[in-house]
Structures are given as C-alpha cells and as structure tokens.
Design goal:
Elements (H helix, E strand, L loop, with lengths): L2 H62 L64 H7 L24 E2 L9 E2 L14 H11 L6 H11 L6 H14 L1 H12 L3 E11 L2 E9 L4 E6 L4 H6 L9 E4 L12 E4 L1 H14 L4 H22 L7 H21 L16 H12 L1 H4 L1 H4 L8 H17 L5 H19 L4 H9 L13
Parallel strand pairs: 3-6, 6-7
Antiparallel strand pairs: 1-2, 3-4, 4-5
Helix pairs in contact: 3-5, 3-16, 5-15, 6-15, 8-9, 9-10, 10-11
C-alpha cells in the first residue's frame, strides 16, 4: 500500500471516529440533561414527600387531640371519650379508704313521722302483742325517706264593714302590697320554677310539663319566662356588689366559653374566685368582650387564665398561667412525638414543683426554701434548652420572607421560656393556685344548659340566665343553697347571700 492510499484510509478512519465522538457527545449531553431533570424531579418529590409527611403528622396530631392532652374542652370529645389520664402518679397504696379513715353513712336529719313495727310470725294476731311491744325496744331500725308533693292555696279575703258599731263609719280592709291579682303564685313556687329552669337546666317547655303533671298547676310558658325575668331583675343590684368585690380582690380566675343564642354564637365571659362568680354575655370572644364584661379593665391584681392570647393584652395586672393546661399540652406532645423527651421531663418538673409547694403549704410555710427555688430554676432552664437542642429552627426557604414557621412543639418551648415567671408564680406566691379549675367549674354549667336546652331563644333570656347563675354561684360559695338564695331574691332580700346565712 502506497503512502497516499494509507493517508486516505487514515483520514477516512479519522472522519468515522469524529462522527462517532460527536454522536457520543450528543448522547452524553442528553444523558446530562436527563440526569439534571431527574435530580430536579427527585428534589421536588422529596420536598413534596416532606410536606405530606408533615401534613400527615399535623392531621394525626389533630385527630389524637382531646380534652386530656390539649386545651380542647370536654364537650368536644363527643361520644368517643378518651381514657382518663390522672395528673397524679401512683402512691403505691391500695384503693379505697386508708387505715384510720373515719367512715360515714347516710343519716336522716328529721324525726320519723310514723313507725311500723315488724314482729315474728307467731306474734302476728297475738292478743298480747301490744304488751310485748311496750316492754321491748326494736333490735334494728331501717328508715324510708320519701317526699309528699302538695299545693296550698291561701285565700286573702278583704272585708267591707258598712257600719262600724264603734266608729260609725264604713271600714274597708286592705290587701298586703304584694297581693296584686285575683290569682298569683307564691314565692316558694316561683323559686322552684326559677331553680328548675336555671340551676336544673330544664327548658321552659319541660318546666311547664313537669309542674303541670306533678302539681296540676296551670303554669304557662310565658309565666315561667316572666318569673325568670323578674328574678334576674331582682338580683341586678347584688351583681353590682359582686363585681365591686371582684375588682378589689387579690386574685381572680378568668375563662370563656361559647354558646348558641337565637342561632348565633355568643361568648360567656367568667371572672370569679373562691367567694364570687360573675358571668357576662358578649358577641365577641377577644379583648373587646373581655373589656365589656367590666372586670378586667380596672383590675390591678393577679389573673389566672389558660394562656389564651387576648388575656395578655390586659394591662397593669400580674398574669398566672394554668399549669393543668400545660400538662395536657405536654401529654399531647409525649403521645404524638415520642422522641420529644424534654416534654416528659418538663411534665415531671411541674408535678414536682406542685408537690413541694403543697407540702410547704400544709406545714404553714409562706415560701419555698432557697434550695428548691434554685433547683427548680436550674432544672427549668436546662429542660427548655434541651427542647431547643432537639428542635433546631428549620431553614427559611429561599425567596420567602417573614417569620420562620416554628411548629407547635417549638412554639410551646418558646412560650414556656418567655412566660417562665407566670408559669412558676404558684411557687413564688402561695395564694396563686396551680390551675384554673375555679373558673372552669364556674363556667361549666353553661355547656350543660346548652346541651340540655339546645340554645337560648333570645339574648335577653341568656343574660337573665347568666345573672341568676352568677347570683346562685356566689350564694353557694357563701354557704347558701340555690333554692334558698332564689327565695331570698324573689322576697326582695337578695343581698342576704353575701352575709353567709347558711343553708
């Protein structure tokens, strides 16, 4: 082969290799583009998967929430009630009364109105049975307590003496000032009607049915409404005094709950302590409704609440956080996020603080020792720091402005850190309770009334109810039962409840 032929052949091979190289380069470019596309798709898929995983966790956590592990009210549990979770730990003692406990049994506080002797079979019909009864005492007595339902009718009769034999003029009698109609209802019956409709949470129609069937009294639904309205009007002045007492008190509990009035949602605001209860109705749940209730705007003491944000807008007061609500939130985190070990540690710390504080109170002490103050302070900060270590702040997505989304766990850690003084106030001031149970007890019957009656027909009816329940709740705290308190109000003496007359 000549040199020219060899050069031609090499050139041809070179051209073929160049074509192959170019084809390989195109194929490599296509593969690179596909790889970049697949990488982008994988990143988008991972991002979407992370979003869906977070969404599933949120929905699962929301589904698992109930009144035992969150701030949700018991009324939201529905028919699927959660298993009770006591905040107390086991003491190791057996259930029931402990050694040395003094037992009590049901005792009658009235004397028997009749006695029925029971003798042996052979004594029945014996002519000397009466003689034996006179010589012996009963070996055992069992009592049956029952009630007799009766209605009395008092006729007030006015006389007109045409010619008085002494004064020689006509003498006409006068009815008492409270006897105004041909037929009217007495104070006891009115008090029973009001107590059934308010304290008993019985609707107007059912109250009408009960009284008509039991007492055979022709009591119309309009008359029942008028009685409730009159009672609410009679206690208005006493409620003003209750509000003044709360304004000047050292500490009050605050809470709110929703109810239905004429097909709309209204909010019941509560301010109370161990002696007084004050309930108001408003269309707003937040700070507007709180201010219109008339207690907190001028109050300067300590308010105990469930850490709801509008309460922090109340100025010139000392805030105390309900630790029972915190325990429920910590329970929820422990159940839904088992890896959050700090939550169970903080729960144990709160319970230990309560135990030590209660023990100091039982021994008559006014404050905790320096040892416990220092110990709880150090442990509090250490647990919060461990919570931050386990929950680093997520990266802010590029191009997204504003505050980083922190999530419920990190938000709770922030709250516990920022509100440390309010959370621990019950260990600093022994007059501050561990929880807000007082307010929850005082407002709970609103939910009962709503469940039983469905809703309030009118806004006036709801306000009458809250006035009477504020009055009755205060009366109970002063040792007076509800029926007696309502009787005092309808008799024109509502202020007697503030004197602690007893039941």
């Amino acid at each position: 082969m000549t040199a020219d032929e060899m050069n031609i052949q090499l050139k041809k091979q070179n051209d073929e290799l160049t074509v192959q190289l170019r084809a390989l380069q195109i194929s490599l470019d296509n593969l690179s583009r596909n790889f970049a596309m697949q990488t982008q798709l994988l990143a988008e898929a991972n991002k979407r998967n992370a979003e869906l995983t977070a969404k599933i966790e949120q929905l699962t956590e929301r589904l698992n929430k109930n009144s035992k592990n969150s701030s949700k009210p018991p009324s939201s549990d529905g028919y699927k009630k959660p298993s009770p979770k006591s905040l107390r730990t086991s003491s190791g003692k057996r259930q029931g009364g402990q050694a040395g406990h003094k037992g009590n049994t049901l005792e009658s506080h009235i004397e028997p109105t009749s006695r029925i002797p029971h003798m042996g079979k052979d004594c029945q019909g014996c002519p000397r049975a009466a003689e034996c009864l006179a010589k012996h005492r009963p070996s055992e007595t069992r009592n049956v307590m029952d009630a007799e339902l009766s209605v009395s009718l008092t006729a007030h009769e006015r006389y007109c003496i045409a010619d008085c034999p002494i004064h020689h003029r006509a003498e006409i009698g006068e009815f008492p000032s409270d006897i105004k109609a041909h037929l009217q209802y007495g104070t006891n019956l009115q008090a029973l009607v009001v107590a059934l409709n308010t304290v008993g949470a019985v609707s107007v129609n059912r109250t009408h049915e009960i009284l008509s069937s039991v007492f055979n009294i022709p009591l119309s639904t309009g008359t029942i409404t008028a009685m409730v309205s009159r009672c609410a009007e009679m206690v208005t002045g006493t409620l003003d005094q209750i509000r003044d007492h709360l304004d000047s008190s050292y500490l009050i509990h605050c809470d709110e709950t929703g109810t239905r009035v004429d097909g709309k949602t209204f909010w019941v605001h509560n301010a109370s302590n161990e002696l007084y209860t004050y309930l108001t109705l408003d269309r707003k749940r937040g700070i507007e409704g709180i201010n219109r209730a008339g207690i907190l705007p001028d109050y300067r003491g300590i308010i105990v609440h469930d850490c709801w944000n509008p309460y922090w807008k109340v100025e010139d007061v000392t805030h105390a956080v309900c630790c029972a609500h915190l325990l429920r939130e910590l329970n929820g985190i422990t159940e839904n996020h088992p890896d959050q070990k700090w939550a169970s540690r903080f729960r144990s710390l709160l319970l230990e603080m309560k135990k030590v504080r209660d023990k100091a109170v039982s021994r008559g002490r006014q404050s905790l020792s320096y040892y416990y103050h220092h110990k709880f302070d150090q442990n509090y900060d250490a647990i919060i720091q461990s919570g931050y270590d386990a929950n680093p702040l997520p990266d802010q997505p590029k191009g997204k402005r504003g505050r980083k989304k922190r999530g419920k766990v990190l938000a709770l850690i922030d709250r516990l850190k920022n509100l440390k003084a309010s959370v621990c106030l019950f260990t600093e001031d022994f007059l501050v309770p561990f929880d807000n149970n007082q307010a929850e007890r005082d407002i709970r019957m609103v939910k009962t009334k709503t469940k039983v009656s469905g809703c309030f027909r009118s806004e006036d009816g709801a306000r009458w109810y809250l006035k009477i329940m504020s009055y009755v709740g205060t009366a109970k705290k002063h040792g007076l039962n509800a029926y007696a308190a309502i009787t005092y109000a309808l008799s024109g003496n509502p202020n007697l409840i503030l004197l602690g007359q007893g039941s």
